[in-house]
Structure formats: C-alpha cells, structure tokens
Amino acid sequence: MSALLRCIAGLLLLALGAAAMATAPRPTLRFEHLSVAEGMAQETVLSVVQDRDGFMWFGTQNGLSRFDGYRVVNYRAATGKPRALSNNWVRVLHLDRHGRLWLGTDGGLNLFDPVTQSFTLFTPDETARRGNGNRHINAIVGDGEDGLWIGTNDGLQHFDTVLRRFTTWHHARGDERSLSDDNVNALAMDGDGRLWIGTGGGLDSLGPQRERIEHHGSDLAPRASPVHALMVDGDARLWVGRLGGLERRALRGPQAGSVRRFGPRDGIGPWWITALYRDAAGEIWVGTHDDGLLRWRGREDTFDSHRHAVTDRHSLGDNQVSALYRDRLGTFWVGTWYAGVSRVDLGSGGFARIVRRDEAPDTLADNKARALLADGDSGAIWVGTGTALNRVDPGTGKTTVYRHEPDNPNSIIDVPASALARDRAGRLWIGSRTGLTIFDPGTRRFTRLPLPGDADANNVRNILAGEDGFLWIATRGGLHRMDPKTRAIESYRHDPAKSTSLADDIVRPILHDRRGRMWIGTFDGLDLMDRASGRFRHFRHDPYDAASLSHDEVHYLFEDSRGDIWVGTAVGLNRMVTAKDGSVSFVRYTTRHGLIDDAVAAILEDADGRLWVSTTAGLSCFDPESGRWRSYTSADGITEGAFFDGAALRTADGTLYFGGFNGITAFDPRAIRDNRVAPRPVITGLAIFNQPVEQAFPGLLKGPVEHAESVTLPPSASVFSLEFSALHFAAPERNRFAYRLDGFDEQWVQADAGKRFATYTNLDPGTYVFRVRAANKDGVWSEQVAALAITIEPPPWGTPWFRAALLALALALVYGGVRLRLSGLRRQKEQLAHQVGVRTEEVERQNRVLERQAAELRDKEGRVRQQSNELARAYRALQENEEFLRQAKQRAEDATRQKSEFLANMSHEMRTPLAGVIGMLGFALRDPVLRDNTREQIALGQANAQALLAIINDLLDFSKIEAGKLSIENIDFDLHAAIRGVASLFEEGAAARNVGFEVKVGPGVPHFVEGDPTRLRQVLVNLLGNAFKFTTEGSIKIEVERRDDDQVRGEGWNMVRFTVRDTGIGIAPDALPRLFQKFEQADAGTTRRYGGTGLGLAICRQLVTLMGGSIGVNSVEGKGSTFSVLLPLADGVAPPQADNPARAPHTHRLRILCAEDFPTNQIIARTMIEEMGHLVDVAADGLQAVAACSRTRYDLVLMDGRMPEMDGANATRVIRAGGTPDARVLDTHVMIVALTANASLEDRTRYLACGMDGFLTKPIDEDALHAQISRAIERQRARGVELPPMPPMPAALDAMDAPPVAALDAMFGVAPEPAPPRPVPRGGGLQERLRAAFAADLPRRRAELDAALAAGDMTEAGRVLHGLRGSAAHLGEAGLERLCAELEALADAGDAPGLAAAGARLERHLAAFQDA
After folding, report:
1. Is the pLDDT of residue 1307 over 80?
2. CATH numbers and ranges of domains, the chain
3. What is the mean pLDDT of the chain?
C-alpha cells in the first residue's frame, strides 16, 4: 500500500512538473545566412546536399556552389566546354549510395566527377516532338539499388546508372494506368518499395513491380490538389504537400489509407507546401511558398512557425522556402527563394529569445527588458521595459501591455518600468523614474505613489519585498524603507559629515541574506546596514589589497544555496568570505579567470549549483565546485548586446530569464548542450608563391587537393602555402585549428578561423608531412587528422649522380696534388738542410747578444720598480688631499645653502608684518578726514617702511639667486619707455639735491626688444640709486647705446650698453676687485654713513649674468665712477596695450557670483566688488553656485577652490556641462575665475584645466580683481551681451589723491581692505566686522574639522584648513596662515598622525579669537 502511495505521489509530482514546464519557452532558432555577398552563385537556393567529404553543395538558378565553411567555389555552364555543367538552373542535388553527386538541371541529368572537376550529361532518347520538358528535372530519388527515379516536367523517368539507360512513363489521355499528369514535382519511396509520385494532377504511386500507376484522389478543389512535396516518415506515414495545404496518409496498420489534413488548429493554414524533410533526429520540417518554415512537434502533433522578421537579422532569411536539409553535424539548412540559404545549429544551444515581433499583435512593447518578476503560480512573468509594463506567457509568447498614459491615473506613473516587486498582499509594485505604481491584480487598478525628496529620490532602480514586511526601495537619491500598509517612509542618504551614513546616494541591489544581514550595493562600494541603528559599514575597493572588492560600482547581489554571497560589480565578480572573527574579504573572478566580460549585470543559480552571470557581452556559467567557466554569446542563441543590471529571474520550474538591451534570454540550464560532433579537417588549397598549384604547375596534382595523399614539388617551389578548413558549419568563424609540418615544426601550431593557412619557405629537400586537426565552436577536437605528404626535390647539384661525379673529380685532384706536393717537399728538404747550418751559427751569435741584453733589462727593471713605489705613495697622498678638498667644498656648499635658507626665511618672516604695517598705513591714508599733519606723519612712516622693505627684498632676491630659484622671463617691451620710467623715479630727487641729471639714448637703440623689463629696471634703479647716494654735487648721466662692435649673436639681436656716470666720491682701487661680492662696500665707513646691505651690486651682477650680459666699473677716488652693463636683447614687437587704465572706473555694471564658504572671505569679496560699483551674490558651496547659475545669468563667477558638498573644480565642470537635469545652467560660457589661497603652478594648471578662465590668489589683490572684472566686461560685450552702464560713483569714493594702495598690496602680498562702505550698518570698521564674522563662524568650522579627523576624511579636513588659511590671510594673522598652510599640506598627503600632533598648536591660535 505504501508503495502504491509513493507511486501515486510520484506521478502527481511529475504531472505538476510537466505543467510547470509547459510554461517554459521553447528554444529559438537562430539563423545565420549565406548568399551572394558571401560568394554564392545566386540567391535562389533550389537544392541542398552534403557530399561524403563533408562539403555543402547548393543548386541555384545560376549554377552550382560548393561551400567549405569559409569559401565558396562556383560551377557554371560554359558554351563550347563539353564537360561543363549542362545548365545553370540546378533544381535537384542527389547523393547516391556510392557517394556520387547527381544534379537535376533544366538541361538534363548531370554526374559530377570530383577528380576532374567536370560533369557528364545524360538525357533520355525520346522524340524531339515532345519538346525539352523531359530535361527539366524536378525530383530525384534512389530506387534502393543502382537506379534513379527522376521526376521531370514531361513525365517520370528511371535511369539505370550501370547500363546508362532511361525508362519513361507519361500521361496518356484515357489510360487510367498512366500518370495523372506529366508534370512530376515530387517523388518518395516507402519501405515497401512503392514509389509515390506528386504531379500537377494529384498523388500517384507505382508498385515495386512497376506494372501500373495508381491514382489516389483528393476531395480538394483541382486548384489546390497539385502535389509539390512528398516525404515518408519513420512511422510509415506519407506526408503530402499540396498547393492547398498539408496532409498525412497512413501507409500501414489498421489506419492504412486514412488521411489527416492539417489546419489552423495545428498551426498551419491552406498554404502552398514547397518542401518536406525528415532529419536524422526524426524531426519533420515543412517549407512553404509564402509562410516560412514549420517544425512539427510530434508529442503535441502541432507545428511551430519560423518566419522572416525584418527587425531580427537572425530570423529566417525569406518566407519562400525552396529546399530543406540537415547535415551530418547537426546544422539545418533552409534554401530560400530570395535570400540564399539560412542555417541553424540543431546540435547545440537550447536558448530561447523573447523579443518584440512587429508582425504579431500581442508582443512585447519593446526589447529593453529592465526588470523581471514571476506572476505567482500562473507561469507568466512580468517584464518591465523601456516603454511599458508587460505580462508575458513564456510558453506562447502572448503579451498584455500596460502603458503609461499621462492623463489616466489608472496607469503606471512613468516609464521605464525599471523595478518590480510583489508584497505579501499580492500587490505588484512598479518602480520608474518618477516614483512608484501599485497594481492590484484583483481590481486591475493602478495607484500612483510619488516618493519624498528630489527627482533622484524618485528615480527607482530596485525594490525588495523584505522578510520583515517592509519594502526596501533603491533610488538614485538614496534608500527608502516603506511600510506597504501605512505607506510610511524612512529615507537613508549619504551624509559627508557622517562616516556611518550610506556610502552613496545611487543605490542599486539590495539583499537580505539568510543570516538576517541587510546588504546594500551603491556606486561607491558595498554597505552592510544595521537596521536597528541605521548605521552602515562600508566595503570598498582598495587597489593595494587583492582581497578587497574588485570595484566600487556594485550591480548585483546574490546568495547561493551554499550560503555564499556573490557581488557583481562593474569590474568583476566577487565571492564574499566571512572569517570567524567577522572580518569580510572577497575572492575575485574576472576575464582572466574565464568570465566573458568584467561588467557583471546579474547572477542566478541553477538546480545543479552552477552560477549563471549576465554581463555586457554575454552569459557565463561558473561551476564553483570545479572552478570551470563556460561562456555563451549571441552566436550560441542568446540575445545580442548587453544585459541590464538586475534583470534576472529564476522561475519555479528552474527556467532562467535574463533581460537585456535586445530582449529576454530564457533557458532550462539542463537543456543547454554543446555540439559534441567534432569537425572533419580537410586541406582545401595548395599555392606556390601565392598562386594556386593548378596554375603554377598544371598537372602536378591528379585531382583536387582534398583527395591528394602526397605531392612532389620541384626545387623552384621554395615558397608554398597550404589552406585548410573544418567542415563544421554551426559557427565556422569560431572553429579552431592545430597544424604541424613533420620534419620542420616541433610543436602543433594553434590558429583560429581567421588564419586558415600555413606558409613555408626555403625548406631543405626531403619529404615532409603536413597534418591539421580542427575543433568546432564548442571546443570539441577531431581525432581525425588531415595529412598531405610533401616531397621537395633537390636541385640538379643536389642529386646523387652529381655528388658522385663531384667526389671522383675531388679524388683525382687530391691525388695530383699529393704527387706534386711530395716532389716539392724533397726539394725543400735539401734547401732546408743547407739553411739550417747557416742559421744555427747565426742563432748562437744572437743568443750571446740576448744574454747581455737580459742582464741590462734586469737592472732597469729594479730601477722601474723603485720609481713605481714612489708614484704609488704620491698617488695616495693626492687621493687624501682630494678627499679633504671634497669635504671642504661640501661644508662650504652646506654653509652657503643654510645661509641662503636663513636669509629667505628671515626675509619672509620680516616681510609679513611689514606688509601689514604698509597696508594699514595705506588704509589710514584713504581716510578723507585726516588732518594734514597726521597725513604727513603717516606718509613719512610709510616711506620708512618701504625703505626697510627694499632692504629685505634685496636679501630675498639674493637668496633666490643663490638657490637657483630666480628665473628670467622673455617678453616684448618698450625699451625707451622703460628707460624713461627709470629716469622719472630720480628726476625729483635730482632737482632737490641740485645735482645735474641727464638721460641720453643713442640713435641706434631699438624701440621694442625682448627680455625681462622687471630685472633690467631693478639693475638700473640700483646703479642710479648708488650714484645719487654717493653724489652730493656735480652731475649724473645715464647713456644707452647699441654696440655693433660687441655683436656676437647674429641677426635679430642687439648688444645694448647701459652706462651710469657720476661725479661722486669714487671708489678706491683696492676696493674695486671685491665691489661685486655679497655684503661688500668700499669700506666700513661707507656703511655707517650711507647705509645699505652691501647686496645691491652683487644682485646686479647675478641678474646681468642670468640675462646673458656683463657688468663692469671704472672709478677714480674723489672724482666719480662709471658703471656699464652690456646686455644682449632680441628684436621685439610692440606689446599689447590694455584698453582700460589700471583702476579706472569700469564702464559697465556686472552681476557677479562669489562662491565662498567662509564668511570672512565673503565679506572681503562683497566689499571690494560693491566698492567698484557691481552687484554681487554669494553662494556658500559649489552646489549652491550651480543652482544660482540656473536661476540667474551672471557675467562673472568667482569660484573658491575648496568648498563643502561640491568643490570649485567640480562645480566648474558641471556649469560647463550645462548643469544638472534638475538645474540647467543659463550660461555655460560664463567667465569663471578661481579664488584660492593655493598659488602654485600645479594649482593654476589644475583649475584652468577644469574649465576656469582665470586665477586670483588670497588675500585678494584689488588691482587683479579690477583687471579680471575688466576682462569680463570685454568678454561679455564681445559675445553681444547687453550690459547696463555703470552709474556715477559718489564723490567720496573718487579719492584720486590717495596713494596706490592696491599696488603696494600686490607687491607685499597683503590683501587690500576696501574703503569703508557707504552705509556702515552698526558703526564698526571693516577689520572689526571681519574678525567678528570669523569668530562667529569658528565653532562650526572647528566642528567640521573634528568630524573629518574622526572619520579619517583627509579631503574634508584639507578643505576646512584651506578656508581657515584664506581667512587668516585677510585678517593679517601671519602665524595662523602659516600653520593652516602646513596642516593643509599634511591633509593633502594623507598624514593623519601629523595632523593630530599639530592639533594643539591650532587650538591655541583659534582660542585667541573665541576668547576675544
């Protein structure tokens, strides 16, 4: 009883499984095409056959074609060539039992001879009065022996292939035993030897005895009854294809003679049937005249239809089918009337493609399958596509489409339908780019539900119906958790200030694993969420850790049956490994391991534990147990192109679905199979010097090369090539080869289908064997090897007889040579005996001489050895002296460097407070209410400070020169104007001293030259300053002349000499040699009397040397001195002149945006801009700047480099790109100027590279700001932008008599403070306002810095320190500015310990502000 119950339960399970499987889609046929473009004789393929060698043959309307998988060889009729094809219209191809190829043409029966590549024609001997219809052959079948049954347009023929004799049958009017019609279209032989004949009048048959023809009538109309195709299946049933449909006749058994006519219920209409075929697997195929290809499903006794689809290039080539054939390797061939031959591999695959069919009414809305979800137990699936929501029946392909209707609330909220989920109540949730839609299957009603937040927060990418009853919604604007009952929503977003917040706002996959953990995939890594606290733990890619995530862009998360979590990213697949201590690491899998592409889209597991991974280039199957990969592309039957991230589904029956750009790929993993039939390799060509062997050496081969076993090449054939093919047509382009020439190649040479040839040159004479193997597209290698023995004949001089003759000649020559040599030796022996006696006496005499010389050499050797020892001692002394000098030189260089560094550091430290003194004095002089005596005292203090600054500048310049950090620029300038400018500095002083001052410029001095005007001015000012310092009476003269005699650089150069003469105190002769040395003056009394550092002339000498010139002096003590400078200056051009004079009022008013996050800096910038008369708005970060540019069309943007939310560089890129989708910038070409405390060349290059147009350093230089605004005015006017004119400025602001404070600011690096604004709200000065704003903002900045340091966010820490540095510069806090710059450098370098160590110093500086 229990066994019976188990049996019943098993049957029920099988029934349920069968019902589930019934819904699975059937594999789709993926056709490849071969037509005229690939070399076919013509596009109408009337017949197909495969010969014994494996070649495919196609009969067309314009000849015969042979195909080896890569190359087509065509045979055509040729007039005057007796052994050519008799007629180009080849209707029938037949391979008899001996492997001979017979052709039925419109010119008779032809037999192909593969050895001679020729044809033999056979025609019946009938009277010409019947016409040539008996030569128009429509069908050929074998009679089971050595005969052929032939159907023609004029009766039935039998051809005895041994006796070469025809027997004919015709229609005879009134004779019931004759054919019903002479037009015989089809023939078939059943198992009993009866021949079935399809004619224009219906169905006939002829018994084995050939006594009489029987007629088998039909109840069809005469127009529909003609038979065009016949086929007998394995169950002894005759399939009859008529002009009006398909029928099946039982030939044996109790139902013998019964006829079933197929109709629309079977999937076939009253169509014209043109071809019937039963393949080796028992499949029945039906070709129609207008309705494509039909495939009979034996179990259901119905037909599947395969038609040509214009939108699918892998569908059937044409709907008019003319021939059907399946080759021995599993490839099915369909000859069509207008599109050549289509082929499909039936030996492998198993994939189904669900795509939109334009000709079908109930089909997918479009092919972009973004989301997939099973529809409960119905077997249907929900598909979210780019334009609609679809409910698809996979078994039939019928689809219900739900589209977005903007004015209909009972439709989905928007498209695409990019996410699908089902809650516990059975409701369907659809995510799109503007929110959610709820679909109630019971009421068939849609409810729209927008999500809180911005547009990104409504752009839904994924929905997870969690086991906790909540819906987890992934969007481009964060993660939402929704209670589907109350619709209450809690959102999680990325917060830069919180390290435990969501890693990124762009969220895609969500996984709730079996351990209760919630995993979130973002575009910035993988997050593990603590749902109780809302905190996130981050896992990111580390380029230095191979066990980290392979990439931060996470596309898919999957937990397999073993509990392993798999992470699909933009660069590879990752298996998560959790250690016992809770630490997480990852094992990576990429294309190097076998993955078809690194960009993973989705992951599914089949019933056997294998993982299926969709990517942007295809599917990969991974077996974790064996570690093996197998990949599939569109050539294997999957959809073409990439797959969408997350678009994957496994249904209850185990069917896997993957959505892609071009439809859905569906399959049963256990039904996926490879083609296990190995190809037959064949050698298809032999070429000598790239010329076919038939042309190079006619008659060398007795037949085609594929039949040859050996070939002998003459000596002249030193370069030959062999071409080979693999006769496997499933995917010839993916076949592989291995070839080897025995006797030459040591190993097998691997090659793909793109290199199907091997070339050999200059082989030695001998015999070699060329062997080639092949593998099909699935890597199945053939055991069979195609081989060809190649013998290379030696040249005439390499033959044995030639070598024998050459050996005999050599022996004769040797014998004669030996005889001559012996006689010569005898004569030489006698001569040598005489010479030996003479030489012996001479040698004895020379020996005595040599003994004397040897004694002398021994004496000299002793003296040389003594001298060598002395030289060695001297060399060691020199080495010790050289090492002492090297160390002394190193100490001197170290001392010089330390001194230069000390000077540079001291100069910088002194310049900073001095710049503040000069700047504050400048601000005081701006006050229009100062009393005259006060103004005079302040001006005197400013002059003294400037003098002190000149001394410091000398020290700083000299330290730069010695450090090699001072560079000379070459620009075009006006030399005459430069000389006049230098002279104007001393004219007033000369008049005050009552000293004559004359400037003389020679006639040949060029007007415009190329050089460094600043350094030239510095040299001349120094020399004239010394002249006025040491001259109390008399005169001073500066002369400039062009020295042609000193010209050394050729054309385009000018040697210009500058001479300064004075009648001062002169220089003593002993002081002249050290006059240009550093810290030197004529004597110590000079320093006490006249002052100075002693660096001026030393700097002059260094600058002149850097400019390629020379400096000299002539002096007579008590009478005066003459200094001359000779410089090479290249010809120049007139430099461009600025349109607006410096600090001239602007002509037009601009609207300016200042993006700056520190209030102190905001006040400075706003005050300066408003003082110049312009309108200014302030944005606190880059995001606000982009938003402001989307609301207002600005004329100029001042952009801080480092800001929160979005820095200046990224904000500039967004503005140049047109803004964001929600905030489009009004003017993408607005002028943007960087505003930053970083003044290095690297920072300038980086800001300009991101799209900025200029650069301003902090503290802001008023002149530089004025110049950038002038550029903005010129730029806007050049663009045609209408600008309002500048209104008249109040008289209080036009203080033209004020000193050039901005010029001093630019020189000393001190930010100019604007004059007090017209309305001062609370009576405080600008400096007090700045310090108050800085102090008020300081707690927030300190909190931001502490949070960044706690989170280890060095980028955020650097931004805060950068802002503090700029504010400190504006406030004149040099110590705080230097400390912030130092800490910013540590943050940029990622030195967290260094930052922590310096934190106390920063706290002490900032505490002073908060205490105040």
Report:
1. no
2. 362-493 (2.130.10.10), 681-794 (2.60.40.10), 967-1131 (3.30.565.10), 1143-1289+1297-1315 (3.40.50.2300), 1316-1412 (1.20.120.160)
3. 85
